[in-house]
Amino acid sequence: MLGNDPFAIFIEKATPIRLLLTDCDGVLTDAGVYYSEHGEALKRFSMRDGMGVERLQQLLGIETGIITGEHSPIVARRAAKLGITELYLGAKDKHQSLLDLLARRQLGPEQVAYIGDDYNDEAILRAVSFSACPADALPGIRQLVDYVCQAYGGHGAFREFAELIIQARTTGVSQIGYQYTPRLAP
Fold first, then answer.
1. Full-model pTM
2. Which of 77, 117, 160, 172 could disulfide-link 137, Cβ–Cβ 3.0 to 4.6 Å?
3. Distance CA 79, CA 73 (A)
4. pLDDT tens digits, residue range 99-129?
């Protein structure tokens, strides 16, 4: 038993991770969207988050997936550019999408981390063993997750969470400057 040492708990949670899933709007973007008379026109993504996807894969073999409630060709294009193959567009029941993915990939929830920002992410955040949210996530989500990023959605929150996992697995979390507050089971 690791007791209440947040660094030990963090390392324990990060060690089995094989897949990092993320919401899109509010995590990979700033939750804004630009519309034209033709519909959705633009979303802003952080290039740093994209590098987080690459570093997870190259350094640890951890894959990344996106589960979003939106049907967005822009998100599909961004996922393709980053080599993300686990893409769930229009997922109205994100938890069911997670369960389908776990069964298909033969993964346990302890092997999956998730970062989300809104109440439609809540069931996944509760189901996986390691969860996070951007600094500007809704208050109820910030209280629920294992780690609240210092960065906002669309401004490096995904990268921050990715780097925490990388550093916990390679150098130990005590070597980094982020604070981690574990969610202790009731």
1. 0.90
2. 117
3. 10
4. 999 999 999 999 999 999 999 999 999 999 9
